[in-house]
Amino acid sequence: MRQKIIVGNWKMHGTLADAHSYVKTLLPYLQSIEGKRVLLAVPFTALSRMAEWCSGSSVELGVQNIFDQEKGPFTGEISAFMAQDAGARFTLIGHSERRKIFHETDEWIHRKVVRALSCLQPIVCVGETLEERDTGKANEVIRKQIIGALHGLSMQEACRIILAYEPVWAIGTGMNATAEIANAMHKHCRSVIWELFSEEVSNKVHILYGGSVKPDNMESFVHQESIDGVLVGGASLDPSQFIQMIRHI
Ligand code: PEP
Questions:
Q1: Structure pTM?
Q2: Of 127, 141, 175, 202, which has the most beta carbons under 10 Å away?
Q3: Does ligand 1 have an atom closer than 6 angstroms to the CB of 96?
């Protein structure tokens, strides 16, 4: 049995005051939660204070991106090691907003995955556009993104990856995939991981669904056998909605 995971992605939102008041609502609730992983991908600016405020709680903090080098003349970038030093335990990699706005390629994402594995757990995001889905290319696109990101990893490294299937057309649009589409795509992701590594690895890797998940639609996803949890953007910004989703995962 794979453990259920919920990840909140705050994107570029929130002052330190916002983050502090969020934590004050969330942490008392988490004391009664067992057997689920609750992760928050926060802005870099909030990370070290969040690490202080969340110390001793079960919430795991992470970042939304890292650079692919350890240090050097890379103005404006943050390394995996720096993120870890500030309190991160995981990083999102290859979120569709980064692929689209910052032109992240599969090759670049692969370098970030390799770098992250030295000190953080990578959450690798994959997803097809609406045009790719409508033209029957979704499976092929997802296969290419998974192989591009994960090729060459050892079996042990591959088992530490969390994959997030997030159809681009469902992110921030209010249009989510049906639970059946999501489950079918998750099975496809597992078959690609099997092809790349082994059946054992494909059974161990956690695969999350993301794309307009909200308290009122999340149960349909988490009841699918191949879906190990959810990655939530917009709805994770409100701690009471996030708490409702933690409850149902
Ligand atoms: C995301 O940021 O990965 C995401 C799924 O966003 P939203 O839940 O807002 O669609």
A1: 0.97
A2: 127
A3: no
95 is catalytic: yes
Q: Sign of torsion, CA 50 55 58 63? A: positive
244 in Cβ contact with 235 (< 8 Å): no
Q: Is the CB of 211 under 6 A from ligand 1?
A: yes
Residue 155 above 90 pLDDT? yes
Q: Which two tokens stand for residue 125?
A: 């995001």
Interval 49-73: pLDDT, tens: 999 999 999 999 999 999 999 999 9
Atom 8, ligand 1: which residue's CA is nearest? 233
Return the best residue to mutate from 130, 175, 213 for the ligand 1 pocket (most ligand atoms within 8 A of CB): 213
| pLDDT more than 70, % of the chain | 100
- 11's torsion region: left (phi>0), alpha (psi -120 to 50) or beta? left
Active site residue 70: no
Nearest CA to ligand 1 atom 4: 233
What count of residues does the chain have?
Answer: 249
